[in-house]
Design brief:
With 189 residues, this protein is an all-alpha fold.
């Protein structure tokens, strides 16, 4: 009898993906990923993918809903039926418009859709990210790699206090200011 882990391994191998590639494809809106070692733990049966984070990450990695993925992984659907559903032409129609957009444009839209920042913030971060790469490097990056680079650049811009990356108010700076004020007040007393 096939286990959840063996079904995951079979799916990954059918799609010709490595555990590392599954990991990279699992990136969420905050740039967190399901590490390759965690994918291996699910495949070996050490992790039964019972947490929301693992389930959502695997679903993102395979481009399908959690319910559809776990219908297959838990044996309710065959691999052939799962692949038919995953390759449904209606799903492909939705994605056709993306074929004419560059990976960077698709990634910018993805980061925006995930609510990582405003359109202005995300586009400026994308422009800065593009400036850090040579032309050959830019063409080698896929959508998820661009998305991760844009999110990282936006975080760096925010940490540096760049007004292009935020309204200028950092939640951390506000909290630090309050603590410093309390410390100052204590010293006066």
């Amino acid at each position: 009898m096939a286990t959840l882990g063996s079904r995951l391994r079979l799916l990954r191998e059918t799609l010709e993906l490595t555990q590392g590639e599954v990991s990279l494809r699992s990136v969420d809106q905050d740039g967190r990923i399901l590490r390759a070692v965690e994918v291996g733990h699910v495949e070996s049966g050490r992790n039964m993918a019972s947490t929301r984070r693992v389930r959502a990450s695997l679903a993102r990695a395979f481009g399908i809903t959690e319910n559809d993925l776990f219908d297959y992984l838990e044996g309710r659907v065959t691999l052939q039926d799962f692949m038919k559903h995953r390759d449904d032409p209606r799903r492909k129609l939705k994605q056709r418009g993306d074929e004419q957009k560059s990976p960077q444009e698709q990634a910018t839209e993805l980061v925006l859709a995930d609510g990582y920042g405003t359109a202005v913030e995300v586009r400026r971060a994308a422009a800065r990210a593009r400036e850090t790469l040579s032309s050959p490097e830019q063409t080698q990056l896929g959508v998820l790699e661009w998305a991760k680079l844009i999110e990282t650049t936006l975080r760096q811009m925010r940490r540096a206090g760049d007004p292009a990356a935020s309204s200028g108010v950092s939640p951390r700076a506000g909290a630090r200011g309050s603590v410093m004020h309390l410390k100052t007040k204590k010293r006066i007393v």
